[in-house]
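wait is this the right file?? whatever heres the structure
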């Protein structure tokens, strides 16, 4: 998949009808601070002039942010969850928004779920991956911040995530927004999702 054009297309902060044109979508999920916005910027080659907001205060963005790519697909930055300092009411609102979006949109081709390569998957990661399987959305797991691991730690981290989340080897890939490692592989996997959609 070659990135030819990118534009910010809008934000949805609460469940309800949307005025978005119906384009296929790929959503990026994962806990706060895991690196969703950084990954989107890296994929879209917007590391210097960022398009997705990278925040120093995790858990601030509680909305879905849409980026239109090549005029034919949306990348959707989902709000991060599991940040301890977020009050309970905000967490409930978060779950409602995600469930509404993933449950009602027929245009989500797949979800890229991010896990920090340095830590074991959390119970939130488990429930997200299970939920996606239940509703039948193809899921890719990306191990972020892989640049922070020593060579010798990488394989262990990959095996740990595969075992914990019960996914296939082909469903998981290491990624670094800092070095760009994994970018081409991920874009190729996303292109494959789009091809599958066209064939259906
Ligand atoms: P929320 O919007 O709060 O949900 O967070 P997020 O998942 O969008 O994370 P964000 O992209 O804002 O990144 C959080 C922090 O991690 C920032 O300081 C990034 O610079 C850093 N970071 C993200 N990805 C990487 C990576 O691959 N390698 C390294 N070294 N740092 C990263
Ligand atoms: Mg973000």
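ok assuming it is, sequence goes like this
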């Amino acid at each position: 998949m070659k990135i030819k054009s990118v534009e910010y297309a809008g934000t949805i902060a609460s469940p309800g009808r949307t005025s978005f044109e119906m384009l296929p979508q790929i959503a990026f999920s994962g806990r706060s601070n895991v690196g969703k916005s950084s990954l989107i910027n890296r994929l879209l080659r917007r590391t210097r002039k960022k398009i997705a907001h990278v925040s120093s205060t995790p858990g601030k963005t509680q909305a879905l942010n849409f980026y239109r790519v090549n005029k034919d697909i949306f990348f959707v930055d989902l709000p991060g969850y599991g940040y301890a300092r977020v009050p309970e009411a905000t967490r409930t609102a978060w779950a409602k928004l995600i469930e509404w979006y993933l449950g009602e949109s027929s245009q989500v081709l797949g979800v890229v779920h991010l896990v920090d390569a340095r830590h074991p998957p959390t119970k939130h990661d488990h429930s997200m991956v299970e939920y996606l399987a239940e509703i039948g959305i193809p899921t890719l797991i990306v191990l972020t911040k892989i640049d922070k691991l020593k060579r010798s730690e990488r394989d262990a981290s990959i095996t740990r995530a595969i075992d914990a989340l019960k996914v296939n080897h082909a469903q998981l890939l290491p990624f670094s927004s800092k070095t760009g490692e994994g970018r081409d592989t991920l874009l190729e996997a996303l292109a494959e999702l789009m091809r599958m959609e066209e064939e259906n």
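The beta strands are 6-12, 25-29, 64-69, 73-77, 108-116, 139-144, 172-174. so i think its the right one actually
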